[in-house]
Each structure stands twice: as structure tokens, then as C-alpha cells.
Amino acid sequence: MNPIATVILAAGKGTRMKSDLTKVLHPLLGVPMLFYTVDLSLNGIRAEKTIVVVGHQADQVERTFQDAPLDFVHQEEPLGTGHAVLQALPLLKGFTGTVLILCGDVPLVKKETLWSFIETFWRNDSTLAVLSAVVKDPSGYGRIVRDPEGWLERIVEERDASDEERLIREINTGIYCVRSSFLAEGLKEIGKENAQGEYYLTDLAEVARKRDLRCSAHMVANPIEVMGINTRLDLARAMDILRQEKLIELMLSGVTVIDPKTTYVDRAVIIGKDTTLHPNCTLQGKTRIGERCVIESNSKILDSELGCDVVIRSHSVITESRIEDEAVIGPFAHLRPQTEVKAKAKIGNFVEVKKSIIGRGTKANHLAYIGDSLVGEETNIGAGTITCNYDGVKKHQTVIGDQVFVGSNVELVAPVKVGNRSTIGAGTTVTRDVPDGALAISRVKQKNIKGWNKKKGFQREKKKKKG
Ligand code: UD1
Ligand code: MG
């Protein structure tokens, strides 16, 4: 098989996005737009080399993809698509085969489409091939001009096209296959005598034809795949298409999605079979969810791991947390980063947990804040319990043992340790360690004043009469 090297064009600013962030870094279903093209090259095509041409916010783009096996080249000034590919030539020295040129802002292309394009290019024995599409509204795109036999004659940009050429509805998608042997020589011959004064990559076709080299255009079956993203409107359209694709993939793998119209699942999220997603839930980042879980409405889960048979009740927000099998969270729970909820534990309504481990079978069912804490197994945390983890300067840890009973409205002033099987009386402020099995109680002894009701009752009655 003929080796393939990919050049991805990603140096443009993306002016029409009206953004401080360079276009190819805008997120699409939880990953930067450029990720899709990079993934196509690395995993879809398994290219021998993937070169990314960067310019605007180059450092940021490189940093975002620093772990991927990519070669970056800089285009200092955006002098056109031809000039952009020219920058990649030094890295293609010694490479013999097919150079596949992709655009970083065309994320919906399928690997099957690219393979069919590449194979046709090989079968036709062409020097250059362009992936084209027939669209209803070709405005803004380069037009495909074919010779009487149907081979590609040239590509003409809209601004440089004649009235007749503008009527052509077959457009250039910006995706090409070029023989490496021709690319370097061909690029040298490209000028910038055109409406934009840029080096157009599209001029390669004419250069090849002048040398009697065969050029072809391969039509894509579904034009949606080659939509370029130029505005936020395009971004939203692409997002919707990718979102539905992801949901279809999940449903076909055994996940129940009650309302696909309002369910948001990022590309990298993994969900086990027989899990049910209720309307309006958002699962983001690197979230992994096991089998038979239930995620109720309006919950948002980011970069978290859930075991099997976990229930997330409505309106819960979970970030960078781990939840083990059969745990129940919510409704209205907030699990913040570095929270671990062990198997069968329960975190109920209006409970916030941060950077803490909640032991197996432990319950914090109502209104509590647990931060920087280690809570053992089978412990009960009463309503209104607060771990006072912050002294205004530093954070401190609270350690609560196994089978502890923490009564309602307890403050645990960290750093503090509560021993196994101990009991904390309701309303207690714990400032010293509690030994195993002890009762800690710090509330003021109750005083009963006799006859109070009569006295007060008299006054209240008088007030009532007045009013
Ligand atoms: C280009 C094509 C046009 C095609 C359209 C498809 C040319 C001359 N025209 O036009 O025929 O129909 O794409 O979307 O190629 N880029 C750089 N450096 C530059 C200029 C662009 O890296 O100096 C990158 C951009 O970041 C982008 C891609 O190349 O990823 C395409 O550039 P863009 O300016 O969008 O080209 P179009 O005018 O859309
Ligand atoms: Mg464009």
C-alpha cells in the first residue's frame, strides 16, 4: 500500500467566529474542533506522518495537542492555503507517497469517506484529486471546473470566477490527495495573481494540467460531512449533528435515552448497557458510567467515573468524582473534585462534598457540607452537619471513623478526628478528637423556666387585641 502523510491546515484565525480563541480550538462536543481532523489522520487513516500547520495562537494549539504524535510547522503570516502547505514541505522531505491535505475546520468528515476518496485517487492514477460536493448554495466556495471527459481542469475561487463559473454547484471541500513527487515542484509555481493576492493551493490543479498530469474530483455522497465551520452558527449546527450521532451510537449499544432532543453527551463519554438517561442531562469530558445506572433529569456530570447500578437523582452536579456501585446521589447534590463515594453510600439533597472519601454504606442524606474529609463505613452524617475545613488561611482535614453517628447540626472544626463507633450529639461543635466509642456533646445544658407560657401568653393576647 501507498504510504500516506497528512497535512492539516489550521493557521487561520477564523475571523468570522468573532472570538478571542482561535477557531480550531473551539470545543465541539467536549473536544477542540481540530481534534476531529487529527483523530481522522492518526486513527482513521493511520497516516505515517501528521503535520499540522499552525499560525494564529500557535502555542496554545500545540499545547492542547502536546501528547499526540503530531509535527507542527509555523506559518508566520497567513498568505494563503498554498503558502500554508509550503511550510510543511521541509517535514515531507524524504517522504514518497500520497499527501492528504485536510482542513482543521472541517470536522464532520467520516473515515470511510476519506478512504473511498483516497482509494479512488489511487485507482484513477491521478497526480492530484480534490474531494468535492454538490451543494444547494455554493456561495463562498471554490468551484470545480471539469473538462469534457469529467477530469478536473481547475478550481476557481468565487472572487475570481466568471458569472458562468459561479453557477457551478460542485464545490471544493478543501480536502485533497496529492502525489508527494509533484507537490513540492507544483507549489513552487503557484503565484498570487488573484483577487485576494494569496497563494492559492487550488492553483495546483492548473499547474498539474499544464504538465499533462491527471487531476480528478471525487464527489462526496453526503455534503453535510464536508461543511466548514466559519461562524458560531456553523458551530452549533455541527455540534447538533455530532451530538445526535453520539446518542445514536449509545442507544445502539444498549443505553436508553428517553429524550435525545435534550440529552447532551460529549464525544469521549463511555456508558454501559441498560443505563437510562432522563431528559436534560449533560454528561461531559472523560466521564465513564457503568451498567444499569439511572441519571435523572437536569443532572450534570463532568470528568467523573460511576460504577454500576448507581442512581443520580435530579438536579445533581458532579465534577471529577468517583462513585462506586449502588451508590445513590441527589436530588440536588453537589460533588466537587476529588470526591470518592464508595459502594452503597448515599448523598442526599443539598449535600455538598469536596475532596473527600465517603465510606461504603455511609449516609449523608440531607443538608451537609463535607470537605477535605475521610469518612469511614456505615456512618451516619446528620442533617446540617458541617466540616469546618477552612480557617481563613489553610484547609484542614476531618477524619470520621466507621459506624459513627453524627447527630444533626454538628460542626466539626478541622483538623479533628472522630473515632470508630462514637456518637456526636446534635448541635455539638467538635473541636477536639473524639475517642473510639465515646459520646461527644458540647451543647449548653437546657434550662426550663416555669410559668413562662402564662406570662408570654398574656402579652401575646394583649397584642392580638390591639391589632
Ligand atoms: C478554501 C478554498 C476553497 C474551498 C474552501 C472550502 C483556497 C484558495 N480556497 O477557501 O476553494 O471551497 O476552502 O472550505 O484554498 N489556512 C492556513 N493558512 C492560510 C490560509 C488558510 O492555514 O494562510 C487554513 C485555514 O485555517 C483553514 C483552511 O486553511 O483551516 C482554509 O482556509 P480558508 O481561509 O477558510 O479558505 P476559504 O476561503 O474557505
Ligand atoms: Mg474556510
Describe the SSE topology.
Blueprint: E1 4-10, E2 27-28, E3 31-32, H1 33-45, E4 49-54, H2 58-64, E5 71-74, H3 81-92, E6 98-103, H4 111-124, E7 128-134, E8 143-146, E9 152-156, H5 163-166, E10 170-179, H6 180-188, H7 204-210, E11 215-219, H8 232-252, E12 256-257, E13 264-265, E14 270-271, E15 276-277, E16 282-284, E17 288-289, E18 294-295, E19 300-302, E20 305-306, E21 311-312, E22 317-319, E23 321-323, E24 328-329, E25 334-335, E26 339-341, E27 346-354, E28 357-358, E29 363-371, E30 373-375, E31 380-381, E32 386-388, E33 398-400, E34 405-406, E35 411-413, E36 416-418, E37 423-424, E38 429-430, E39 439-440, H9 452-466
Parallel strand pairs: 1-4, 1-6, 4-5, 7-11, 12-15, 13-16, 14-17, 15-18, 16-19, 17-20, 18-21, 19-22, 20-23, 21-24, 22-25, 23-26, 24-27, 25-27, 26-28, 27-29, 28-30, 29-31, 30-33, 31-34, 32-35, 33-36, 34-37, 35-38, 37-39
Antiparallel strand pairs: 2-3, 6-10, 7-10, 8-9
Helix pairs in contact: 3-6
Query: Helix amount, in percent?
Result: 10-25%
Dominant shape: elongated
Provide the CATH architecture of the largest domain.
Alpha-Beta Complex
Which class of the largest domain in CATH terms? Alpha Beta
Mean pLDDT: 95
Distance between the termini: 97 Å
What is the total domain count? Answer: 2
Which ligands are bound? uridine-diphosphate-N-acetylglucosamine, magnesium ion
Helix count equals 9
Weakly predicted, low-confidence segments: none
Structural class: alpha/beta
Give the tally of β-strands.
39
The CATH homologous superfamily of the largest domain: Spore Coat Polysaccharide Biosynthesis Protein SpsA, Chain A
Q: Write down the Rg.
A: 32 Å
Determine the CATH topology of the largest domain: Spore Coat Polysaccharide Biosynthesis Protein SpsA, Chain A
Q: Please give the largest β-sheet.
A: 16 strands, parallel
- Beta content: 25-35%
